[in-house]
Amino acid sequence: MLDEKINEEMLAYQTGSGSEINKRPAAIKSSLTLGGLDQIKSPHIDLVIWHRTLPDHFHNWLECLLASNLPQIRILVAPDAVSSALDPMLDACGLPISAMRDFLVNDISELVHAFSIITESELVDVRLEHIDHDSCWRFHTDVVDLRLLTTYLGPGTEWVSPVHAENAIIDQKKYSGPLEQLKLAEVAVFKGKKASKTNGIVHRSPPIEDSGASRLLLCLNKRSEVSPPAWKADQ
């Protein structure tokens, strides 16, 4: 498991025709604060996890909501406009106005602000997704620079220590090696293939098909060619 120090591990991966094996360090770091997430900017850090918790009554509130009221939202938004953008969308989802809804919006806003500073982005691609099926179940690395993930409801994102990454990619559903998992509400910033010197951290969404489980996942990305149009106050 992770501790509070940088955990240096070697990731072996195939290059070229597959006959040559290169090894490069992939570092994973833990943080006890939101500000610690900016350590991902170090060229040798591929994953930073903020080991936080949120109040039990917040999670209880989410668990009591109807599945039909859980949000399915994607917006490209400036950090200062998150609340203004989300509130009407949450109204449209039927998510009841309450102190807990305000708590959710404020938390998302705080994370968007932090991510925008880390990535030096004026706009952030925000996805708040209700998931009740096997979404992104394959072990993979992201074709992005940086991605922030946190789970508000249900099981968290699973990831593989770099020394086992190659086996996970090859074996997929048959993989039976060590597997790490983000705890509820923990925040992780993953470095993807575009920024990592080691191709990034291999991870997946936890398989939940037919389990009865449901997830509410927040995913933040930099603006890309697949992002929606930027949100405007008059829309």
Description of the structure:
It is a single chain. This protein has one domain. The protein is built from 4 helices and 11 strands, in the order βββαβααβββαββββ. The radius of gyration is 18 Å and the shape is globular. The chain is of the alpha+beta class. The protein has an 8-stranded mixed sheet. Helix 2 packs across helix 3.
What's the helix and strand layout?
Elements: E1 7-15, E2 20-31, E3 45-50, H1 56-64, E4 73-77, H2 82-93, H3 99-119, E5 124-131, E6 146-153, E7 158-159, H4 165-171, E8 180-181, E9 187-191, E10 203-204, E11 215-222
Parallel strand pairs: 2-3
Antiparallel strand pairs: 1-2, 3-9, 4-5, 5-11, 6-9, 6-11, 7-8, 7-10
Features:
235 residues; alpha+beta; 8-stranded mixed sheet; 11 strands; 21% helix; globular
Low-confidence stretches: 1-25
Side by side, the strands of the main sheet go 1-2-3-9-6-11-5-4
In angstroms, what is the radius of gyration? 18 Å
Mean pLDDT level: 86
Taken together, the total number of domains comes to 1
The first-to-last residue Cα distance is: 46 Å
Percent of residues in beta strands? 25-35%
Strand segment count: 11
SSE order? EEEHEHHEEEHEEEE
Describe the biggest sheet?
8 strands, mixed
Based on the structure, what is the oligomeric state of the protein chains? single chain
Structural class: alpha+beta
Instruction: Give the % helix.
Output: 10-25%
| Count of helical stretches | 4
Shape: globular
